[in-house]
Amino acid sequence: MAARPADLPARAGRPAAGRAGGPGTAAVTPRRAGVLLAGYLVVVAVLAFSPLQRRLADGARSLLAETVPATWSGRGVGEPLANVVFFVPLALLLCLALPRVHPLAVLVGCVLASVGIEVTQAVFLPARTPSALDVTANSAGALLGVVLHQVLLAVRRSRDRDGGVPDA
């Protein structure tokens, strides 16, 4: 089989060799992002609804207490920061897995998911304390994930426009 020159278009769904996103690069296709998203949703479900979450949270608090300043641990900064970080990959993976969905719709979906988590905790998990602050922090994380996706998309488009040559 003859090799295809790098300047010829690739088959559907596969970039040409030597181009940005070609073999040897870390291109994330919607399918790969979907697989990662499915795995991350399992993590989200465990952390949001499982009794295991309390043990994991206690372990995370212990780790925080040993590694970050005391003023950051506990409910002060550590937990809200964790709630922000919790939703960054969710929004980013949703944007990558569903490229035809508008980023604003991803953001709204993440906010609604956060509200759903808190309502579920209030109704079905009496040991958990639902919080509007958690929704706010999760929403901020989702916004960061969407913004990160838009930045990565702009960089990729810029590289594609410049022929894959990074700026010197």
Structure characterization notes:
The chain has 168 residues and is an all-alpha fold. 18% of the residues are buried. The radius of gyration is 20 Å and the shape is elongated. The chain is built from five helices and no strands. The protein has helices at 30-49, 52-67, 78-97, 103-124, 132-161. The two termini are 37 Å apart. Helix 3 (78-97) packs across helix 4. Residues 1-25 have low confidence and may be disordered. It has a domain at 79-160.
What is the makeup of the main sheet? none
Low-confidence segments, ≥5 residues, pLDDT <50?
A: 1-25
> How far apart lie the N and C ends?
37 Å
**What amount of the residues lies in strands?**
under 5%
The number of distinct helices, counting runs of at least 4 residues, comes to 5
List keywords for this structure.
168 residues; mainly alpha; disordered N terminus
Question: Could you give a quick summary of the protein structure above?
Answer:
This protein is mainly alpha-helical and 168 residues long. Helices cover 64% and strands 0% of the residues.
Helix and strand layout, with pairings?
Layout: H1 30-49, H2 52-67, H3 78-97, H4 103-124, H5 132-161
